[in-house]
TrEMBL record:
Protein name according to UniProt: Acetate--CoA ligase
Coiled coil: none
Domain Acetyl-coenzyme A synthetase N-terminal: 46-98
Residue ranges constituting the AMP-dependent synthetase/ligase domain according to the UniProt record: 102-491
């Protein structure tokens, strides 16, 4: 940004000037695409083609962007909505599209990942190298008994093996089920159990900010008696030294070292031609109940969605761009925009194992400078943290290589958007606020950089081929105003079902407005220019730092504690994390909660779900506000948590409960 002003005789401190500039820019409603930004991939034809006929548009893209072992002859089978099928009689292999085709074209030496560890380690993984490791691992998995359709769990930190693990599954037609490394082993167990995973690929230990967590030992404690899980494959990432002297415990006959398996395996594993609709992966996500939803994606449609949107939204030139997505591979963003989208396009990415604030607050900016990153994709919560730490950290580094910035995961507040655009992007980079979900597989609403004018806080408009729309509560189309977000046409990368739970799939997404209208679960506003502004969830899902959590899941973890009689969990607006978890808790036998119990309950939730699910605030409640039929009124609890005047309490069984709670919260604050 321009911080030098010739006429300024008494320069204010830089931060003061930045504040003033951001305040000024907050009044700017819309930003034209920066003049210096030139698109590499034109979209005009796509926009016209998709508007004319979305199905033909996707068929053309599928032929243009993917390599098929057997070309498809039917595009969309919509005979049995909402169970859509795309490119049904076609066959391809996803790992061949991500690896072999680039190597065959003479680009085997291109870097797939520049891997950076948090202690300064560096590794370079080329396309040829990744193909080699993927083939060996694929053969290794086969030797452990993994075949087509078998589920393989993956619980790994951000190490290069995670890419090989996912691709090796795809190569042999196995279905991966990646669990975010921040989840507790008991959550991993639940996900392995409900998906009948045959093999789990994990790690001896995981590093975070200079400390090492003994992952394998913790996994053993949870997974020991799980019958369906036949083998555990262990990457030795930290070794005996990292674990305080001894290598991770291994159970003979069940556990295998990853390195040994890969070294001994046959280096050639031809890619298995897979039917377009063969399951590719399951990714568990939170819904309205305590039971996580196993979102199922299939092969060709998913690959097409991520391949097309990656090049359109990030305008990648694989020969020159260095791309970095700071998400974790355990979320959909990592699946689609760290692994499959970039690799299918033959792009070069940075993969980083560490945190943004270790060893110092400039860890990310240092990497951008070192690798000359051109396209950076992160989350609003991270941007807000960086704002809090201050512009002095990015200012220490040369960020002039950046040409495009992306955001994902939650609504981005205009101030954070502007800070990102000004401080990180130097005012010259388009900012793409990308809206999508685990269920959509690929970005659906986003500016097209260089084309769409942006409004801070708005994800702007649908990408070609996607048809999000707003409806009133009654299901009437809305062209302006606030409504319920839906998608009116099937799209190739849509979820196909919830794993082994077709009924819940239909009930969750296709019951409110019928079998052809996908219910997103978000509320949004459409402005007079047709721009979408995402407001937030309409179900009992909390979005903490862009991570989806279910109130019911957190509640059931809390009530599993022996001292707890009852609990209700709500979201409270939070400047840092977007939303924060507030738990109202009633203890058994009239026990009174204290600070020690707060700590105990927070640890208890961390052990059952993961640290990310720990309540920020616990409010002791003698009783919870319930309707006469016994339903907890969360709306009132949100009012109390956020200090608002209480709404209508007349439907409560005992209105006095609310007054008691409100006075208690006021005291505590
Ligand atoms: C929210 C993450 C506003 C939204 C890719 C959605 C967003 C949920 C945005 C999906 C955005 C995601 N602006 N809200 N740009 N991106 N969301 O499945 O509520 O982890 O329904 O997928 O995050 O979260 P999920």
């Amino acid at each position: 940004m321009s911080t030098t002003d010739e006429t300024d005789t008494s320069p204010a401190p830089v931060t003061g000037r930045l504040e003033a500039e951001l305040e000024r820019l907050l009044a700017v409603e819309s930003f034209d695409p920066p003049a210096g930004f030139t698109r590499r991939h034109p979209v005009e034809n796509d926009v016209a083609a998709a508007a004319a006929d979305p199905v033909t548009f996707w068929a053309d893209k599928a032929r243009e962007l993917l390599n098929w072992d057997r070309p498809f002859t039917t595009v969309l089978n919509d005979a049995n909505p909402p169970f859509y099928k795309w490119f049904e009689d076609g066959e391809l292999n996803l790992s061949a599209n991500c690896l072999d085709r680039h190597v065959a074209a003479g680009r085997g030496d291109r870097v797939a990942f520049h891997w950076a560890g948090e202690e300064g380690e560096r590794r370079v993984i080329t396309y040829a190298g990744l193909l080699d490791e993927t083939q060996r691992l694929a053969n290794g998995l086969r030797s452990l008994g993994v075949g087509k359709g078998d589920v393989v769990g993956i619980f790994l930190p951000m190490i290069p093996q995670v890419a090989a693990a996912m691709l090796a599954c795809a190569r042999i037609g196995a279905v991966h089920n990646v669990v975010f490394g921040g989840f507790a082993p008991s959550a991993v167990r639940e996900r392995m159990e409900v998906s009948d995973a045959k093999v789990l690929i994990t790690v001896d230990g995981a590093r975070r900010k200079g400390r090492t967590a003994p992952v394998k030992a913790a996994v053993d404690a949870e997974m020991g008696d799980l019958k369906s899980l036949e083998r555990i494959l262990v990457v030795e990432a930290v070794g005996a030294a990292g674990l305080g002297g001894e290598r991770a415990p291994m159970t003979p006959g069940r556990d295998v070292w990853y390195e040994e398996l890969v070294a001994a395996a046959d280096p050639v594993c031809p890619p298995e031609p897979m039917p377009a609709e063969a399951p590719l992966f399951i990714l568990y996500s939170s819904g309205s109940t305590a039971k996580p939803k196993g979102i199922l994606h299939t092969t060709a449609g998913y690959l097409l969605g991520v391949t097309y949107t990656y090049r359109t939204v990030f305008d990648i030139d694989p020969a020159t761009d260095i791309y970095w997505c700071s998400a974790d591979v355990g979320w959909i963003t990592g699946h689609s925009y760290i692994i499959y989208g970039p690799l299918s396009n033959g792009a070069t990415s940075v993969m980083y194992e560490g945190a943004p604030d270790y060893p110092d607050f400039d860890a990310w900016w240092k990497l951008i400078d070192e690798y000359k990153v051109t396209v950076f994709y992160t989350a609003p919560t991270a941007i807000r943290s960086c704002m809090k730490w201050g512009a002095e950290y990015p200012d220490r580094h040369d960020l002039s290589s950046l040409r495009l910035l992306g955001s994902v995961g939650e609504p981005i507040n205009p101030k954070a958007w502007l800070w990102y655009q000004q401080v990180i992007g130097g005012g010259r980079c388009p900012v793409v606020d990308t809206w999508w979900q685990t269920e959509t597989g690929a970005i659906m609403i986003s500016p097209v950089p260089g084309v769409t004018s942006t409004k801070p806080g708005s994800a702007t408009k649908p990408l070609p081929g996607f048809s999000p729309a707003l409806l009133t509560e009654q299901g009437q189309p809305l062209s302006e105003g606030v409504g319920v977000l839906v998608v009116t046409q099937p799209w190739p990368s849509m979820l196909r079902t919830l794993y082994k739970d077709d009924d819940r799939f239909v009930e969750t997404y296709f019951s409110r407005f019928g079998p052809t209208t996908y219910l997103v679960g978000d509320a949004a506003r459409l402005d007079a220019d047709g721009y979408f502004w995402i407001i937030g969830r309409i179900d009992d899902v909390i979005n903490v730092s862009g991570h989806r959590l279910s109130t019911a899941e957190v509640e059931s973890a809390i009530v599993a504690h022996e001292a707890v009689a009852e609990s209700a969990v709500v979201a409270q607006a939070d400047e840092q994390t977007g939303q924060a978890i507030v738990a109202f808790v009633t203890l058994t036998g009239g026990r009174v909660g204290d600070d020690a119990m707060v700590a105990e309950l927070r640890d208890h939730v961390a052990a059952r779900i993961g640290k990310l699910a720990r309540p920020k605030r616990i409010i002791w409640a003698d009783d919870l506000p319930k309707t006469r039929s016994g339903k907890i009124m969360r709306r009132l609890l949100r009012d109390v948590a956020e200090g608002r005047a209480l709404g209508d309490v007349t439907t409560l069984r005992d209105p006095a409960v609310m007054a008691a709670l409100a006075s208690k919260v006021a005291e505590a604050d």
